[in-house]
Write a structure and sequence with these properties.
It is built from eleven helices and no strands. With about 350 residues, the protein is mainly α.
C-alpha cells in the first residue's frame, strides 16, 4: 500500500471523520454486497443459533416440566418454594454446553462479516483505480463472487477472531476478578454496601470505578487489533502476522484508532439496545405460543421470554456490524497509506 491510496483521503487532522465518512460512502454505493453478507450472517445466526437453543430447550424439557410440577405441589400444600431449586444443576450443565457453541458461531460469523467487508473495500479501491476505463474496471460484486473471494481468507480470519478473544479475556476477567475479590472482602478497608451500610468512597473507587477503567482500557487494547482481519485480506498474511501488523500500524495513530473503535462500539451498543427493545414484542407472542404448547408451564415460558429479546437483537445485529466492518477496512487503508507516506518521507530524507 502506497501513500496514494485512492480510497482514503490524506487529511490527518480529520482522519477519524474521513475514515468513517468513507466507510459510510462505500456502504451506500455497495449496499447490495454489504447488506447481502449481513443478511447471510443473520440467516445463519437464526438457523444455526436457533437450532442450538432449540436443542438446549429439548435437553432441558424434562427439567422444566419437573420444575412446574414441584411448584404446583408446593402451592397445593402451601409450602415455600424456590424456583428451579432442584433443577438448577442440570440447567447449568446444559448452559455450559450451549454457550461455547453460540460463542463459536459468533466468532465464525464475525470472521465472515469482517472478511467480506474487507473484500468489498478492496473491490471499491479497484473500481476507483480503474477510473473511467470501463474495460479495466471490475464489474459489480455479486454475493457469489464475494463468497469466492472471501473463502481463502476465512480460516485465518477465524484465527484472528480467536486471538482477539484471548486479548479481550485478559481485561475482562481482570475486571471480574476485582469484583470477586471485593465481594469476598479480601480488600482491606473496602466493604460491599448493604441496605443499612451505604457505599463508601473506597468501595466506589475500587469496587466500581476500577473495573470500569480496566474494561475501558480493554476496549482501547482491542482497538489496536480492529484492522487485523482487513490486514489479513489485503496482505494475505497469517493470523499472527496480521495481529502484529495491526499493532504496528496503529502505534502512531492510537487516538484516531481508539476514537473510531469506540464510536463504532457505541453505535453497535445503541443498535443492540434498540433491537433488544423491539425483540420484547416478539417475546410476547413467543411466550403466548409456548404457554399454549406446554399447557401453561410458566417456567419454560419465562425462560423463553427472557432470552427472546436478546436473541432477536443478535440475529439482526449483522446489519449493523457490516457497516462497522467497512469502516475498519477503510481504517486499514488509511493506516497503510499513512505508513507508506512516512516511509517515502524517510527515504527522501536519507
Amino acid at each position: 500500500m502506497t501513500g496514494s491510496s485512492p480510497v482514503i483521503g490524506s487529511d490527518n487532522r480529520r482522519a477519524g471523520t474521513s475514515v468513517v465518512a468513507e466507510g459510510l460512502r462505500i456502504t451506500s454505493r455497495h449496499r447490495r454486497p454489504v447488506f447481502g453478507s449481513a443478511f447471510l450472517a443473520g440467516a445463519a445466526a437464526l438457523l444455526v443459533g436457533g437450532g442450538i437453543v432449540a436443542g438446549a430447550f429439548a435437553a432441558s424439557w424434562g427439567l422444566f416440566l419437573e420444575a412446574g410440577r414441584a411448584a404446583e405441589g408446593s402451592i397445593d400444600y402451601e409450602e415455600s418454594y424456590v424456583a428451579y431449586s432442584d433443577q438448577w444443576d442440570g440447567l447449568v450443565k446444559v448452559a455450559f454446553c450451549v454457550y461455547p457453541l453460540l460463542l463459536l458461531l459468533a466468532m465464525v460469523l464475525t470472521a465472515w462479516l469482517l472478511t467480506a467487508q474487507a473484500v468489498i473495500v478492496g473491490h471499491a479501491r479497484e473500481r476507483t483505480a480503474a477510473g473511467t476505463d470501463s474495460r479495466g474496471a471490475p464489474g459489480a460484486l455479486t454475493l457469489r463472487a464475494l463468497w469466492r473471494r472471501c473463502r481463502p481468507h476465512l480460516g485465518a480470519a477465524f484465527r484472528v477472531q480467536l486471538l482477539t478473544l484471548v486479548c479481550a479475556l485478559l481485561p475482562g476477567l481482570t475486571g471480574l476478578l476485582v469484583l470477586a475479590v471485593v465481594d469476598m472482602g479480601m480488600v482491606p478497608g473496602v466493604v460491599w454496601p448493604t441496605y443499612h451500610d451505604p457505599a463508601t468512597l473506597q468501595f466506589i473507587l475500587v469496587g466500581r470505578m476500577l473495573p470500569v477503567v480496566i474494561w475501558a482500557l480493554g476496549l482501547v487494547l482491542l482497538s489496536r487489533f480492529a484492522p487485523a482481519t482487513a490486514i489479513r485480506v489485503t496482505d494475505n498474511s497469517s493470523a499472527t502476522a496480521a495481529m502484529r501488523r495491526s499493532w504496528t500500524l496503529t502505534r502512531t495513530a492510537r487516538l484516531h484508532t481508539a476514537a473510531i473503535h469506540l464510536l463504532s462500539t457505541a453505535a453497535v451498543a445503541g443498535a443492540f439496545t434498540v433491537l433488544r427493545w423491539l425483540g420484547t414484542y416478539v417475546a410476547h407472542w413467543a411466550g403466548l405460543l409456548m404457554l399454549a404448547t406446554t399447557g401453561g408451564n410458566v417456567w419454560v415460558t419465562g425462560v423463553l421470554v427472557i432470552i427472546t429479546p436478546t436473541a432477536v437483537a443478535l440475529v439482526l445485529l449483522p446489519l449493523v456490524l457490516a457497516p462497522m466492518g467497512v469502516v475498519f477496512a477503510c481504517l486499514r487503508e488509511w493506516l497503510g497509506g499513512r505508513a507508506g507516506r512516512a516511509l517515502v518521507v524517510g527515504v527522501n530524507a536519507d
